[in-house]
Specification:
Length: 209
């Protein structure tokens, strides 16, 4: 797929410094059902310096890629998102499964059983399927080999307005970075989604009172 490889290289090379923390990924056939979309996942925007915990990825060395057929991926100018640019993914035809079109990236910190993981990200729907009021994506972090279990799989319903979201989950077992990834499943409908900065965090352990 030379064209897809060229697009990947173009997107990585075009990534502005302001979006250096962007890591977009969607995992393959992960087990478990999506959480019901919850307005509570929309948060007041925060900078990465305000987020407590340790990044699971190295901001300056994220290697991510769009995946799947019947999609178009490019970097676009977009007003209202930090950095002024975004990754735009157009789903030209709805695939059989949501993970058939996705953005994926590796992370370089292992996740241990009991770790609390948080994903912070900017998201908006540039266009949506006729008859729908919002777009639909799944924020995911989990294992990319069998049994395809997850730490997080959460449905988000983005509108045309840029918003920052936060979803979280607790690991029930270990997730070595060598067999796990993070990002978004996008193939839930015909739509065009734009992604801004993304932060995957291992939250500090709670201190007993």
């Amino acid at each position: 797929m030379p064209r897809e490889r060229n697009m990947k290289n173009l997107m990585i090379a075009s990534m502005p410094k302001a979006l250096a923390l962007l890591a977009m990924v969607a995992a393959p056939t992960f087990a478990g059902s999506s959480a019901t979309a919850d307005p509570a996942v929309e948060i007041t925007p925060v900078s990465p310096y305000q987020i407590a915990g340790d990044l699971l990825h190295t901001p300056s060395n994220i290697k991510w890629e769009p995946y799947g057929k019947n999609k178009r991926a490019k970097v676009v100018e977009s007003e209202g998102v930090p950095g002024g640019q975004a990754i735009q993914i157009e789903v030209k035809r709805k695939p059989r499964d949501p993970w058939d079109i996705r953005m994926k990236a590796e992370f370089n910190r292992d996740i241990s059983s009991g770790d609390n993981i948080e994903l912070y990200f900017w998201l908006r729907a540039e266009s949506i399927q006729k008859g729908k009021e919002t777009g639909k994506v799944e924020a995911v972090i989990g294992r990319n080999v069998k049994p395809h279990d997850t730490v997080i799989v959460h449905e988000i319903l983005p509108t045309s307005e840029w918003k920052m979201y936060k979803v979280s989950g607790t690991a029930g077992t270990e997730f070595p970075s060598s067999e796990s990834d993070m990002g978004f499943n996008i193939g839930l409908m015909k739509q065009t989604i734009e992604f801004g900065p993304f932060y995957a965090i291992k939250a500090p352990a709670e201190t007993p009172e």
